[in-house]
Amino acid sequence: MLDWTGLAAIFAAFFVVTVSPGPARLAVSTVSAARGRRNGMMFGCGLGLGLALWGIVAATGLGAVLQTTTHLLAALKVAGGLYLLWLAHGSARSAMRKDDASSHSDGDPSVNERSWFMRGLLLNLSNPKAVVAWMAALSVGLGAESGWGGVAIATGGCIMIGFAIYAAFAAAFSISAVMRCYARARRWIDGIVAALFALAGLALIRSAVSRA
Known about the structure:
Helix content: over 70%
Strand content: under 5%
Largest sheet: none
Shape: globular
Radius of gyration: 18 Å
Number of domains: 1
Order of helices and strands: HHHHHHHHHH
């Protein structure tokens, strides 16, 4: 069975990987600062579910299979890269707008929340590198003696950590003071975000092409 030391090591490794700078953290931060806490939380929930699904893939051993399926992995990376480029395009368009006030009244709030949830879900599902992070974190404390029970406990705990981290980012960046700062520097921030998304997308596509 998995002991508490191994479990703590897995949780610590997963926390470090999940909280590190990346497209998901960047996206939930900017969405929360621009659209408020509810939309930010929905986006974070989508990110959390996408991350959880990759965790299930890793825990069941399908992650190792995916790593050996060159063409499928390359296709997923290309799809993920294109999605990041699409996000970059959206941020660039926002950066070019002089007044973004109208973008905060997009109709039915429930429709907007569902839309942000799906965007978050697609963002993490489109990043097959997440399964590598999962495999690395789980391998820190899991061994042959851990059994399926230990794998399930470790995976479930990491899933909760993922949701908590995205919720924390959404809460922190939707504070009124942060939102006011974002509103004042929106065009600069969105321009930088667009560049970072574009670089991440191109890097993912390049990785797919070089591996293929």
